C-alpha cells in the first residue's frame, strides 16, 4: 500500500510538497486551517490531490505515515502536539525535496539577515557562469515543486530556521550562514541558544567533501563554531582576518579558495553598504567553490539587479529620495539600512514587534535620523526608545499617511527610508504589500 503523506499548510511550500509526493507515488492529503489561494486550489485539482481548507480533520491527519509541516506552524500548535504524541515523523518541505533531488548539487543559504540577497546573488553568478541552476526555497518557487516539475543539476535554496528545524537527512554541498542575530525568538522559547542551534542545523549532515561558508566577523557565529560538530571544509569570510577565504581591504575584495586568487574593487559592486559587501563575499566564495571563472564572477557582481523591497530606490521628488526597504523586518536589518545612509534620514518604523530591542539602534539613529515616522497600530515602544534622541516622532496608520508625513518633514537633500524593523501583519498582508503600498503612495505625492 502507498505510504500516506499528509501536508499541513497549503501555501507555496505545501502545494509543492503535495505535487512531489503525488508524483513519487505517495497517498497525499493536504490540510489547511485557513483558505487556499485560487492558484493553489487549481494546482491540487489538476494533480488529483485530496485536500481540505478552513480547518483540520484530525482522523485524516493522524493516520499519516509521515507529515510535511508548513514552516509557519509552531510546535506549540495543538494539532502538532497531538502528532508528536503519536510519534508520526514530521519533516519540512526541503527535506522531502532533498530525498528526490538525486545527484544535483545543493547550495543552501540561511542567516538572520542578508539571506535573500545572498541567495539571489549566488544564483545570478552561477547562471552568468553557465550553470543551469534553479532559485528555490523561501524565495520564489518551492524546492519540492521544482524537483517535481523541472529538475535541475543545481539548486540554490534559501532556507529559514523553521525549515531547518524539521530536516532529517538534508545535506547541502555548500552551506552558507550569513549571520545570526536575535530574531523570531517567540518561536524559540525566547532562548537565543535554541535559535542558534536551529541555524547550525544547516551543517548537521555535511561531510568532509562539503563546504561551510560563514561570516567570521559575526560574534555569535564565531562563538558558536566549537559547539557544533562541523565535518565540512570551513571557508570563513571577513573584513578583519586576511587569512579568510574572502576578505576586503582598502576597497578591494579578495577571494581565495584553493590555489586561485580573485580580486575586484568593491566600488564596482551594484550592491552598496557594508552588509552587502559581506553578502557579496559569501556569494563570491560560493561561486569560486563551484568553479565559476573569475571573469564571470566579476561580471555578475556588476550586473546584479537588487531585489524589490530591499533598499529599493523608489523616486526622488523635489530633491528628496525615497527608499523602500520593507523587507527589513527586524532591528538588525534596519541597522544595516541606516549604516548605508549618507544623507539626513527620515525613518519610517514600526509594525508587529517580535520582541525587538531598539537600544542596539540608538547610536545609529542618533547619528543619521532627524525624524521617525511610526507606521503601526501600537507605537508605544518606539516612542519610549527614541524620544529625546530624535526631535520628531510622528504616528501614522497607513502607507499613504506615512509617506505624506515623511515628505512634509523632509528638506531637499534628505532621504525617506521605509525600513520598519517589524513584521507587517498589523496593517498589511505581508512585507511585499507594505512596500507596494508605500511605493504607490510615494508616486501619488
Automatic annotation (TrEMBL):
GO terms for biological process: cell division; cell wall organization; peptidoglycan biosynthetic process; regulation of cell shape. Residues 109-286 form the Mur ligase central domain. Gene3D superfamilies: Mur ligase, C-terminal domain (3.90.190.20), Mur-like, catalytic domain (3.40.1190.10), NAD(P)-binding Rossmann-like Domain (3.40.50.720). GO terms for cellular component: cytoplasm. Residues 309-422 form the Mur ligase C-terminal domain. Coiled coil: none annotated. Its main location: cytoplasm. Keywords: ATP-binding, Cell cycle, Cell division, Cell shape, Cell wall biogenesis/degradation, Cytoplasm, Ligase, Nucleotide-binding, Peptidoglycan synthesis. Cell wall formation. Catalyzes the addition of glutamate to the nucleotide precursor UDP-N-acetylmuramoyl-L-alanine (UMA). It holds the Pfam family Mur_ligase_M. GO terms for molecular function: ATP binding; UDP-N-acetylmuramoylalanine-D-glutamate ligase activity. It catalyses: UDP-N-acetyl-alpha-D-muramoyl-L-alanine + D-glutamate + ATP = UDP-N-acetyl-alpha-D-muramoyl-L-alanyl-D-glutamate + ADP + phosphate + H(+). ATP binds at residues 111-117. It is found in: Cytoplasm. Pathway: Cell wall biogenesis; peptidoglycan biosynthesis. Belongs to the MurCDEF family. Its EC number is 6.3.2.9. HAMAP family: MurD. This is UDP-N-acetylmuramoylalanine--D-glutamate ligase. PANTHER family: UDP-N-ACETYLMURAMOYLALANINE--D-GLUTAMATE LIGASE.
